[in-house]
Design a protein that fits this description.
It is a single chain. This protein is an alpha+beta fold and about 130 residues long. The chain has two helices and four strands, in the order H-H-E-E-E-E. A hairpin with a 4-residue loop joins strand 3 (about 100-105) and strand 4. It starts with a helix and ends in a 19-residue tail after the last strand.
Length: about 130
C-alpha cells in the first residue's frame, strides 16, 4: 500500500509544477513519472520478495535445524596407519539433511550441509572368556 500512496503523491506533485510560461505540466509528464515510478516500484517489490524468501528460509532452518548422526563399526583388525576407515556395519543413521551419508564401504562421510562436525572413535578388544 505504501507504493500506491507514493505513486499517487508523485503524480499529484508533478501536476502542480509550473513550466516557464506559468502553465501546468501536461499529461505526458505525468505518464513519464508514472512509468518511472511503476518501474521503480516493480524493482522494489522484487527486492522485497527476494529478501522475504531468504528470511523465510532462515526461519525454517531455525525451526527445524539441520542434523546428522551416524554410527558405524568395524569388526576385525585394521592398522592404525590407514587414512580411511571402512566399516562393516552401520548401527545408526539419522538425518534431515539431503545428501548426508556415511558410506560404510568407502568410509566417506558426506555432510550435506556446511558446519562443524565431530567424529569420535573407540577401540576395544574382545578377550576369550
Amino acid at each position: 500500500m505504501i507504493g500506491n500512496y507514493l505513486l499517487l503523491f508523485l503524480i499529484t506533485l508533478s501536476s502542480r509544477v509550473a513550466s516557464d510560461d506559468n502553465t501546468t505540466v501536461g499529461a505526458v509528464d505525468e505518464e513519464l513519472i508514472h512509468s518511472i515510478t511503476a518501474e521503480r516500484l516493480a524493482r522494489v517489490k522484487q527486492r522485497i520478495r527476494k529478501k522475504t524468501n531468504l528470511l523465510m528460509k532462515d526461519i525454517q532452518i531455525l525451526k527445524n535445524p539441520p542434523y546428522s548422526s551416524f554410527c558405524g563399526s568395524k569388526f576385525g583388525s585394521f592398522q592404525l596407519v590407514e587414512n580411511t576407515i571402512t566399516y562393516t556395519k552401520l548401527f545408526h543413521a539419522s538425518t534431515n539433511v539431503e545428501g548426508a551419508n556415511l558410506d560404510t564401504s568407502t568410509g566417506v562421510f558426506t555432510a550435506g550441509y556446511p558446519g562443524v562436525y565431530t567424529s569420535r572413535g573407540r577401540q576395544g578388544t574382545r578377550g576369550d572368556r
